[in-house]
Amino acid sequence: MDSFVFAAVLFAAACHAGWNAAIKTGLDPLSSTVLITTGAGLVSLVLMPVAGLPPAAAWPWVIASVVVHLFYFIGLSEAYRTGDLGQVYPLARGSAPLMTAGLTALLLGERIHATGWTGIAVLAAGVLLLSLRGGRLREKPDRRAIFFALFTALTICIYSVVDGIGGRVAVDPHPYTLAMFVGNALVMLVYFAIRRGPSGIAPMLRAWPTGFVGGSLQLMSYGIVIWAMTRAPIALVAALRETSVLFGALIALVLLKEPLRPARLIAALMIVAGLVLIRMS
Q1: Residues in contact with 67: Cβ distance below 8 Å, sequence separation at least 6, in sequence order
Q2: Alpha helix locations (H) across 52-142?
Q3: Domain coordinates of the chain in residue numbers?
Q4: What letter would DSSP give residue 122?
Q5: pTM for the complete prediction?
Q6: Which of 230, 235, 228, 221 is nearest to 278 (CA)?
Q7: Which pLDDT tens digit goes with each residue over 90-140?
Q8: CA dihedral defined by 136, 140, 143, 145, rounded to 10 degrees?
Q9: Regions of the chain with pLDDT less than 50
Q10: Please, are residues 130 and 259 in contact by the beta-carbon 8 Å criterion?
Q11: What is the distance between the alpha carbons of residues 220 and 212, in angstroms, rounded to a whole number?
Q12: Chain-centre distance for alpha carbon 70
């Protein structure tokens, strides 16, 4: 993988961990998710006059992505409502890379060298270990949290493929990304209005700085990933993005006071090893 693309996706991973941590602080998970998604949509709306609109051929992919992202955000907020960041975040992210690699190989015929496949597998194993030996090591795992985390992983796989194709169809991925985030914001606001009604809006308005910062991180993170998927195999970019769990684990340890376990150190080494193999592929 090209060095610049590699470094850019690592930066995107750090941004991704940042907005995921913002969901776990302050408001309830659903309100935080909608707030951050709305923030990303508003920033995208401001940038759209400069970037323009995606071509007509890309709009079906934009719509498909918005629909899949609705289920992604629902699954993510429900998972965070019942599980801690150290368990839910790695499980949701770690289950997706091999799914994505298999799906892109099947649908798009993307060819990845054995080194790349090994890197994806080692990285995914490290991410899963980080979750399975995570914050609730001595407690019985919350089945509801695990279900929604795995459901979220499935949606990650699907939207990664959809947006990888959509970004390529659009040629310039930036208008595609902005249109998708505006659509996400609109759909999530409608969903929130149905679930909570007008009474839930006031607390969100009071937390607008979190929405702006988290939304900007969300837009920057995934915008870089969509751009990267137009220049490298979707599976490799999707797997590399999951190094965000390292940043997530650090946030969980320092800010959220979730416990540190020796297995997390082993998992971190596995993730780094996977990183090296992906870089070499």
Answers
A1: 187
A2: 59-82, 85-94, 96-107, 114-132
A3: 3-280
A4: H
A5: 0.84
A6: 235
A7: 777 777 888 888 888 888 888 888 888 898 888 888 877 776 654 444 455
A8: -20
A9: 134-138
A10: no
A11: 12
A12: 13
